[in-house]
Amino acid sequence: MRYLADILTLSRFILAIVLFFWAILGGSTEGAFIIFFAAVLTDTFDGTCARKWPFPKGKEPKYRKYAALYDMVSDVLLAASQVLFLTLHVNAIFGISVIIFYVVICSIIELIVYGKFFGHPDNCTPNSLTKKNFPLAKKLVLVRRYIYTICIGIINAVVLFATSWPNPVKYILFAAGCSVYIYMWLFLRQRRENISRDAVDIEKELTRKAKKEKK
């Protein structure tokens, strides 16, 4: 069971690639929704599985050193593939609008929190919000996650209602999707608590580095 989280993450990566080519080749809207929804389910439960069945400390497989990177790449590729399908086959204006909105918001948050794009708490600039007010920076990072979740939910709903399925089926699937996203929302709240606990250690590390730079 310890490998279940890794299997789910790998499955999401594979589904993201399948969805990408599905969009390029002009697959059905129904198929796109099923692929994406299955991938979202893996995203919903891989973190839960990782916490419930962790590897013993010091005995994790070497590839898990980059587990966070694998997870992030899978999420980005999946979201990009669904937006691509939406833009090419459902509503181009809406798809492009979502892309612009998300990129602009995330870019602003990155610049404020880290002082540069693709930043991280341990390599941010001296004028970044992370250096000046870490608790506030932490909240902005969570805002970005919330925006991502909301955008993905809206995109999938638009794709769902663009299918040829009967309305009762659409409503049932929509309700199921809402249940998944409510779970993810609660999971993000739990992640917020985890970040709060880790914040003390990160702040200590930032303080240590700052003192070292002054010497």
Automatic annotation (TrEMBL):
Q: Which Pfam families match?
A: CDP-OH_P_transf (PF01066)
Which segments cross the bilayer? 7-25, 92-113, 146-165, 171-188
Q: Which UniProt keywords apply?
A: Membrane, Transmembrane, Transmembrane helix
**InterPro entries, from UniProt?**
CDP-OH_P_trans, CDP-OH_PTrfase_TM_dom
The keyword Membrane appears for this protein? yes
Please give the name of this protein.
CDP-alcohol phosphatidyltransferase
